[in-house]
Amino acid sequence: MTQRTGKEMEKFRGSKYVQSLIGDSYTKAKKLLKEGRLVVFSGIPCQIAGLYGYLGGWKYENLVTVDLVYHGTPSPRLLKRYLSYEESQCGGHTIDYRSRDKYYGYQYSTATIYFDKTKNEYHKGKESDFMLGLYFRTLISRPVATLVILRRLIALATLQYLIVGMLQTYLRNSVLVEQRMFLSIRIKERKSLEKLKMSLFMQVLTLNILSILMA
Length: 215
Known about the structure:
By secondary structure, this protein is α+β, with helices and mostly antiparallel strands. The protein folds into 3 domains: 20-67, no CATH class; 76-136, no CATH class; 143-214. The protein contains 7 helices and 5 strands. A 3-stranded antiparallel β-sheet has the order 3-4-5, with helices on one face. It starts with 5 loop residues before the first helix and ends with a helix.
């Protein structure tokens, strides 16, 4: 969704926890960037990475990207079925839906639905709302979202494992490592490094197994 004025940007308010459709957003963003307009592009990390990939790594001083920290991405089809069910219960068609409304205050997450042909309003928290309850239990997030997180954890654990391995190799050639790069490690700490390395290896192995099972 592309908006240019402050009034139009109000449409961005009211989060909906489902996978968003990129559509032609990348194309529009690139066109606006080439026109010299300031572009603020928000999305989940993989969508931001997709934008940079589409731009070919080209650096634009007029581009600001905002990565959103997210819990998961449920299916849009599930949302449609959920709203259809609530419409049958309350009557009318949905004119506005908010996953994390502040109807009861900022300390409480509320699902809010407004209908067109009735004055009934729907306000329920995760304890009683079907969609919100399943979302917070991580039961309706698409596997791809979890895979992205797993792969990042794998990369981080692998990097830590390699660093510890390099440190061990360095220690084998030195009885005492003097203060270099603000580190001072003695030989007696080799066992601790070995335990850390094994722990990291098990993390990498476990995360890779989970990634394969979920693929």
